[in-house]
């Protein structure tokens, strides 16, 4: 059997054909995963995470509005009046909002959200394929296998449940490329400027992901550089590398000076996060389990070991773990000393991040032990305490993808001597990867935005820039207010402000963050009515305090649509209407909503 190219199929032609096949596969898988939304982007929502979808739609609309109206894209008083929200400590996706602003104005925030989500998945596959095929392996098959696994691994499919930040995995190979490019002599300025811009873009889209990527690259480089086979190379490249890092820090520092100041010293900042690291840590057993949105999950083998369906950050399954170990062993046996340094660095990085993902205390099949783990020691450090430990497992998937790519290339270059061994490898790859093939995200119809908003009727009842609130108030589980506001901003209707909102802000225990503002009497009564379907006991005191709350927010109109979208539970509109009537008197029927005018103080 000849190994050289045939005259009818030169290498360039075959390579281009392979590139096209990978591109088509990447786009097809992206469309397949998000297919449930494409039927009607404006009416359908991701079932398990419609709240985050509403948030990102709002961020796209607000970012475009801020860009076209000369407003601050990192701080806003449109939500959480009167205090406002520091978007620099939230996931503001500023670059996406600016780049896609024309599309947002053209087709609306929900459709733009879907376009970005789909492109994120496809672009992640294509950028990893580019890095692998142009810089790491010669085999296009190997590069395609590694890239498609990384882009559609369980963690990425899980975060496709509305996370525009975490699905932007295309940033990672570009950052890796930018860092290693700094080794070139004479490339400090140009390479440093380029990497500095990439860092600024990554910060504005996925700051937590940038932090994890930086930690992973730093750990890899330290282990790689300390290996005896690489020390001479490191000494030769170190001066150029450090100069390039200096330029990178300067460029990124200039571009991010204001967002970083807001993040660490600006108003409405906080430390830590609004999520419990004990809950948002990876179950050790999850590494050998299967995810729900996969072929194995469809067959009933999926588990619920993640804190929620958007955080299945490992879930590789035992066959893939065994395959990864086998690939590592194969590569180690056939590697020279220099490549063993790379393998060692990859292995250490994967193990360290896997252990850190287990969080402060070990957990096995949902049962938590008292065993203190490394993350429990690091959790009090600044910046680290704002990260969710389970997401550190996201670093493991690219390492496995790299091992798969290297192993495929090695097996193609040096096929096993025995046919039975070759068959065993083929079956091993099939058994490990086929169960992880993704299935489409679960979607469902969500309540439409009322005509009161879409027709612009709200402008007759709220002064320009005035405050309107839906019932119940806008929070993560009832995101209607931000959906309404996103529609008004994207359709150039003007501005109305809302109290509360879905955001991270101060007010949590021990000075940590929390989701939304601390509750007040009025929104607590409305939340109770919507959840329990019962009208709370209303007293003269609760009426007086509710009016005080509405005056504190400067609310001019309280609005209840016929159908309220509850992101986690059904909301009882009748109980809300009766409770608001007991507090504010009889409502007016305007278009398709009930409206209460708030009397002046």
From TrEMBL:
Per its UniProt record, what InterPro entries does this chain match? DUF6311
* Protein name listed in UniProt: Predicted membrane protein
What stretches pass through the bilayer? Answer: 20-39, 87-107, 113-132, 139-157, 163-180, 187-205, 211-229, 241-261, 314-332, 339-359, 392-411, 423-442
Keywords, ordered alphabetically: Membrane, Transmembrane, Transmembrane helix
State the Pfam families in the record.
DUF6311 (PF19830)
Give the taxonomic lineage as stored in the record: Bacteria, Bacillati, Actinomycetota, Actinomycetes, Micromonosporales
Q: What species does this protein belong to?
A: Micromonospora rhizosphaerae
Residue ranges of every copy of the DUF6311 domain listed in the record: 72-369
């Amino acid at each position: 059997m000849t190994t050289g190219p045939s005259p009818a199929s030169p290498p360039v032609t075959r390579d281009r054909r392979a590139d096209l096949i990978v591109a088509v596969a990447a786009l097809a898988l992206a469309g397949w995963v998000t297919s449930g939304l494409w039927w009607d982007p404006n009416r359908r929502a991701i079932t398990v995470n419609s709240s985050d979808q509403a948030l990102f739609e709002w961020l796209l609309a607000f970012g475009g509005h801020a860009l076209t109206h000369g407003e601050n894209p990192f701080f806003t008083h449109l939500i959480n009046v009167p205090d406002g929200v520091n978007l620099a400590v939230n996931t503001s996706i500023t670059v996406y909002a600016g780049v896609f602003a024309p599309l947002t104005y053209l087709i609306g925030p929900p459709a733009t959200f879907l376009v970005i989500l789909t492109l994120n998945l496809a672009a992640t596959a294509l950028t990893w394929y580019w890095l692998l095929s142009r810089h790491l392996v010669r085999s296009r098959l190997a590069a395609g296998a590694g890239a498609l696994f990384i882009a559609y691994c369980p963690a990425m499919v899980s975060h496709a449940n509305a996370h525009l930040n975490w699905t932007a995995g295309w940033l990672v190979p570009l950052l890796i490329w930018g860092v290693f490019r700094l080794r070139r002599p004479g490339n400090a300025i140009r390479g440093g400027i380029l990497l500095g811009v990439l860092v600024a873009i990554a910060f504005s889209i996925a700051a937590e992901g940038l932090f994890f990527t930086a930690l992973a690259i730093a750990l890899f480089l330290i282990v790689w550089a300390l290996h005896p086979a690489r020390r001479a190379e490191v000494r030769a490249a170190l001066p150029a590398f450090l100069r390039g890092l200096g330029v990178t820090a300067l460029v990124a520092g200039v571009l991010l000076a204001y967002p970083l100041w807001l993040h660490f010293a600006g108003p409405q900042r906080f430390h830590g996060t609004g999520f419990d690291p004990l809950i948002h840590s990876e179950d050790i057993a999850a590494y050998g389990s299967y995810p729900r949105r996969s072929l194995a999950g469809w067959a009933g083998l999926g588990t619920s070991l993640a804190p929620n369906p958007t955080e299945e950050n490992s879930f590789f399954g035992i066959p893939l773990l065994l395959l990864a170990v086998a690939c590592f062993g194969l590569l180690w046996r056939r590697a020279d000393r220099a490549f063993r340094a790379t393998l060692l660095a990859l292995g250490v990085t994967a193990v360290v991040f896997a252990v850190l993902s287990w969080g402060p205390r070990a957990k096995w099949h949902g049962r938590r032990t008292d065993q203190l783990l490394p993350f429990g020691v690091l959790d009090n450090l600044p910046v680290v305490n704002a990260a969710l430990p389970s997401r550190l497992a996201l670093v493991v998937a690219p390492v496995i993808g790299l091992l798969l790519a290297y192993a495929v290339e090695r097996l193609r270059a040096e096929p096993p001597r025995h046919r039975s061994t070759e068959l065993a490898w083929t079956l091993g790859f099939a058994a490990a990867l086929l169960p992880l093939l993704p299935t489409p995200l679960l979607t469902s119809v969500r309540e439409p935005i009322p005509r009161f908003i879409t027709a612009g009727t709200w402008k007759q009842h709220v002064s320009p820039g005035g405050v309107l609130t839906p019932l119940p108030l806008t929070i993560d589980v009832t995101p209607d207010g931000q959906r309404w506001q996103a529609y008004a901003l994207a359709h150039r209707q003007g501005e109305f402000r809302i109290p509360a909102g879905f955001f991270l802000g101060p007010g949590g225990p021990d000075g940590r963050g929390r989701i939304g503002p601390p509750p007040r009497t009025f929104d607590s009564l409305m939340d109770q009515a919507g959840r329990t379907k019962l009208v709370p006991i209303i007293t003269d005191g609760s009426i007086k305090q509710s009016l005080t709350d509405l005056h504190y927010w400067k609310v001019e109109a309280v609005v209840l649509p016929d159908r309220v979208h509850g992101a986690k539970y059904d909301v009882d509109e009748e109980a809300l209407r009766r409770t608001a009537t007991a507090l504010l008197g009889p409502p007016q029927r305007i278009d398709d909503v009930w409206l209460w005018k708030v009397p002046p103080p």
